[in-house]
Structures are given as structure tokens and as C-alpha cells.
Specification:
The chain has about 170 residues and is mostly helical. It has 2 domains: about 80 residues; about 60 residues, Alpha-Beta Plaits. The chain is built from 7 helices and 3 strands. It has a 3-stranded mixed β-sheet, covered by helices on one side. Helix 6 links the parallel strand 2 and strand 3. Helix 2 crosses helix 3. The protein is elongated. The termini are far apart.
Length: about 170
């Protein structure tokens, strides 16, 4: 089953081929008209479900393909932040969504930078962008290192020192 993102990429490739030729404007108009038609149909379906069966709309929005179509037409019942949080929870990682803004999800990842870090980062980025395809990117950050500063016991303090003090 193709993803909305893959189909969108392919449509853009095909339109790029037509950009230089005489078919450019009609091709763009065909895409626009079809998008408007399908978008209006989805909007009517989503509107009916919001009123009559919100749980069913939520269930439909959980399907990857349908979720992508709902996002494409700005009809998804959940905002990008909610969808990203759910995706991170499904991964079972210790990643935390810090926020979504300017088309970027900012995610804190509390783990070391060991051998599998690049693959784990790629997995996180893919999960976030699949959950919120309208985002342009993902910014991964690590928590700042915390250092505990305090006074330790003075030299010679403790049980071993008690026997020496006389």
C-alpha cells in the first residue's frame, strides 16, 4: 500500500517533467481540481463523523493512509503534537516531545550516543514525520548534563576516622 508521502513525491516528479512543456498549466489544474474534489468529499465525511460518531473518526485517523489524507486536507482530528506524542509512545523510547513550531518537531532524546545512535535517530525521525507529514523536519536534542555540586565530608570524617581521633 503506497503512503500519501510516496504518492505525493511521485506526483511532484511527474509535474516536474511537465513544467517545461505546454502541458504544465493543464496538468497543474487537473491536480488542483482533483485535490479540491477529494478534499471536499473528505471534509463532508469528517464533518458527519465528528457529529455522529467521533470515535469512528478517531479510529479512521489511526490508519496510516487515511491519517495522511486527513492531514493533507487539514481534517485530522488531532493536532501534530498529539500525533507525534502518540508515535513516540508507540516506539517505547525515552524520547520526549518538547514542542512543534515553524514546521519542526523538537524532540529530547535521553540516551547515550553509542553505536546505534544514528539508526535510532533515523527511526525517531521517520516515526515523527510519518505521524505528522505536514512537518518539514525533526530536531533531536539531548538533555543537558546535570552535575551535582555539594560539599563532601571533611577529610578524616567518618567511622574510620573515629578510631584515630584521640
Amino acid at each position: 500500500m503506497p503512503s500519501v508521502r510516496a504518492v505525493g513525491d511521485r506526483v511532484e516528479e511527474l509535474l516536474a517533467v511537465l513544467l517545461g512543456g505546454p502541458g504544465r498549466e493543464p496538468a497543474e489544474e487537473i491536480v488542483r481540481e482533483l485535490m479540491n474534489l477529494y478534499g471536499e468529499g473528505l471534509a463532508r465525511i469528517a464533518g458527519l463523523l465528528r457529529v455522529r460518531d467521533p470515535a469512528l473518526l478517531d479510529e479512521l485517523a489511526g490508519d496510516g493512509l487515511l491519517a495522511g489524507l486527513l492531514v493533507l486536507h487539514d481534517l485530522h482530528p488531532h493536532d501534530a503534537g498529539t500525533r507525534v506524542r502518540r508515535a513516540l509512545d508507540r516506539l517505547g523510547t525515552d524520547a520526549e516531545l518538547l514542542g512543534v513550531g515553524d514546521g519542526v518537531a523538537r524532540v529530547r532524546v535521553a540516551r547515550g550516543r553509542g553505536c546505534g545512535a544514528a539508526a535510532a535517530d533515523a527511526l525517531l525521525e521517520t516515526a515523527v514525520l510519518d505521524a505528522a507529514p505536514e512537518l518539514a523536519g525533526v530536531e533531536l536534542t539531548e538533555p543537558a548534563a546535570l552535575f551535582q555540586i555539594g560539599m563532601g565530608p571533611p577529610p578524616g570524617w567518618g567511622p574510620a576516622a573515629e578510631g584515630r581521633a584521640s
